[in-house]
Predict the 3D structure of the following.
Amino acid sequence: MIIDLRSDTVTKPSKEMLEAMMEAQVGDDVFREDPTINKLEKLISEMFGKEQALFFPSGTMANQTAIKLHTTPGDQVICDKYAHIFNYESGGAAFNSGVSCNLINGNRGMFTAKQVEEAINPNAYYYSKTALVEIENTTNKGGGACWDFKEILKIKQVCKDNKLGFHLDGARLWHALISKNETTKQYGEVFDTISVCLSKGLGAPVGSVLVGDSAIMSNALRVRKIFGGNMRQAGYLAAAGLYALENNISRLKSDHEKAKEIGATLKCLSIIKKVEPIETNIVIFQLKEDIDEQQFVNKLADKNIFIISMGSRKLRMVTHLDYTDNLHEILLKQLRLI
């Protein structure tokens, strides 16, 4: 019996999701003739109150497309030092769009409107032109932290005053919505573009969607093509996303509860130095300095429990829909025996 807590991307489609995929009506999406992809894009655009949505094979490609749509080479993007677009997208912002990142030293991946104001470059030709502000909700490297929506509104005003684009990497936005009792429409009203993932937490095997109004999205299809993201009969994948949206959002609350229980158990262990605050489904913790990190990870692996290192002596566990109540009880028992 394997307990895989490395990420919420390790899930496999359920029997019901597979049935939905097999029954999907498909067509050639390069010709925009796949009815299931069209249905998914229409659903998500309406959820956020946006005019257009576009299906992507990955969240990275959706984010990279958004950056491309908002910027021109030489521009600068304001984001947190923990941002996924900076840390985990292989330097794509520089490679694909020719832009640099002005990193804010935030708190668990989140920053303030005042910090954004201070990060905007002066309007002189020898500075990079600040073009875009990007935030991530929930914050991956920040331990699944959820933004204060009031601060998001303040940042939006800064963007408006300075004519900056505002993009949300909402890979785990679904978790924030459940945790904070917020709505997709709230976010759609604030951000110019939003990427949401269907394979983190929701259990779909592949896929992210980028939403925005027609003006900003007018070139999105061309950029996706340039990045190699056009697909043909991809409605089978879109069907998994539709099933996930219809069935797997409300159950995220269970993942959050399990994560908090894991955190409470870790706090009781003598080898643990710190457990970071847990709001959603990500648990980040540190071992005491005299405990060998790799030995700890290997010891769990010997018991078929798999976690990952985030660097800087931080370890991570992520709960998900394949992490059942039974597996949860086994994990808590094994942790107490360490």
